[in-house]
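Lab notebook, bench 4. Still working through the backlog of constructs that have no structural model yet. Next entry is a single chain of 242 residues. Request: give me the structure tokens for it.
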Amino acid sequence: MAERDVIVAELKRALRERGHTYAAVAKKLELSVASVKRLFSGGDLSLKRVEQICELLEVSLAEILARTQERPVASQLTVAQEQEIVSDPKLFLIAWLLVNRTSFEEIVHTYQFPEREVLRLFIRLDKLKCIELQPGNRVRLLVNRHFSWRPGGPMQRFVNQKLLREFMSSNFVGPQEEFLFHGGEVSELGLNELKNVFRNASRQCAEILERDRGPRETRHSAAFLLALRPWKFSGFEQFERK
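Model written out:
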């Protein structure tokens, strides 16, 4: 992740922690909310605007820069990490939930795991160096939010064989479903542009998931692959509280 992107990501994290919205940032910068969203999405923040956002957050720029040094830098797990995670359905579920910012309390409330077992799984992920277990059963991810699976690795094979087949077994005709498929001849330059569009779309989708703070009882499990539908992996259902 580029240094500029890391700083922008840290500013977003600080905004969430302090309960500030893009509307508050827009008021501070004297811009529209849409303009602020574009600035954060494109990472096009000048030093002056960064300092203004720091004023809103009541933190110094030096503190933001210091916090960026604590952020995870790994963009992929090792083969050994992926293999251990996919070999244990419970560990895979917990890893999935933590990547999606699910708290210890929410896991215990939603799934049929006693607190001791959830803590045991947290400790395994800590020993794998996927997370850092902190006081109060809180965790810090040791991979960045937009990490990718190893091409052809254990996790990608598992996703292709299990999750992807299940996710695609739909006609995508429901009111909350979307499936977009287009094709055509394209040059190498065009392919590279398409890849950038896909990456930006994926990053924006991940950011929506990350900042969503709607009531838990109104939430739906969902997944996207330039196709969208309410969906939860069947392998997780066995662990849910009835």
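Notes after review: The chain has three domains: 3-68, 79-141, 154-237. Residues 79-141 form one domain. Flag for follow-up if needed.
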